[in-house]
Amino acid sequence: MIDWSNATVSGHQELGLKPEELQKSKCVLGFIPVIYYSALLCVGVPVNILTAVALSRLASRTKKALYYYLLAVTGSDILSQLFIIFVGFLLETAVFHRDVPELLLHSVSAAEFAANHASIWSTVPLTVDRYVALCHPLLHRQISYPARTRKIIAGVLLLSLTSGVPFFWWSDMWRNSHPPTALDTVLIWTHVTIIYFLPCSIFLVLNSLIIHTLRVRQRQQPCQEERGPQRRLGKTTAMLLAITSVFSVLWAPRTAVVIYHLYVSSVHRDWRVHLAYDLSNMLAMLNTAVNFFLYCFVSKPFRSAVRDVVLLRGGPLYPHRAMPQQQAPNNASISSLYSGNNKRPQRDSTPLSPRRARKPS
Predict the structure, then answer these.
(1) pLDDT of the chain, 361 residues: tens digit per residue
(2) What is the dihedral of CA 54, 59, 60, 65, to 10 degrees?
(3) Could you count the other beta carbons within 10 Å of the beta carbon of residue 108?
(4) 3-state SS string over 185-200?
């Protein structure tokens, strides 16, 4: 990022490149990436920790699958910030200029990809859960409960971490001047499929089905009966659409640049590709720090939970007393919205609102 070439000495000798040709791939942004990633880390880690604490409180109170999935997304974002931004971009690139043992370099690369996959794929079961809850509420009542949710999250995280192992052999785009090998091609296409094409396809299909179901339901239900429930459905759906849409937009440039690097021009040969790769990485990593602000914008209960954490106010938790009256609503998440009861207080009409425990006699 400062003023070094992205090619190895052996690569220079193999291609017979002149010194002036090697200067093309220098980072034209100078210290801007270092400043950007440092600021992103200083903001992203604290807000994600705050998000994790607030979501933990809400999950303990309500036992809803939604909060467990959001908590998994937040934890994966923290791992991505530590491994990718702090270790990868700041320590290896800016401080050590990748002058570290090759074994350590490849090990960190595998950890970075594992954290990256976990951050992205933690959103997939959240999308599936929202689809089942909205489109198949009776099935959601049977299959969605905290124990199963935790097993699904553990399985997704385990598979995501395991998927990072093959990227131990990932070719360093910043230094290697040789053309991509067959292994490089396989790893790059595997990478873009795992982190973008496959999850985005799932988001597109399920979100389209959710929106279609809501529109059909809106036309079928009387306006007065729908007015109360639609507010809860709208907020939950809006949050899901915001999370998946922001991810799709922020990661699209990096995916395009990686494929362009593979088939057209490498980062080493063209400074413009180097610049595009820098900017696309900066956009992609921004995705690890924006969910907190999306939750705050959509959810009043989440804002209240954050305020309690900041003010060091420990709200009362009644998991055992709330379980009998919450068993059906929490397992079905939103299936109770179709009961037609529109006289519920406004504070309980948001999707992230914990139910109040029954008053003691």
Answers:
(1) 333 344 333 334 434 444 444 444 566 777 898 999 999 999 999 999 999 999 999 999 888 888 999 999 999 999 999 999 999 888 877 777 667 788 888 888 899 999 999 999 999 999 999 999 888 989 988 888 889 999 999 999 999 989 999 999 888 766 666 778 888 899 999 999 999 999 999 999 999 999 998 888 888 776 544 454 444 456 778 888 999 999 999 999 999 999 998 888 777 777 888 889 899 999 999 999 999 999 998 888 899 999 999 998 865 444 444 444 444 444 444 333 333 444 444 444 444 444 444 445 4
(2) -170
(3) 18
(4) HHHHHHHHHHHHHHHH
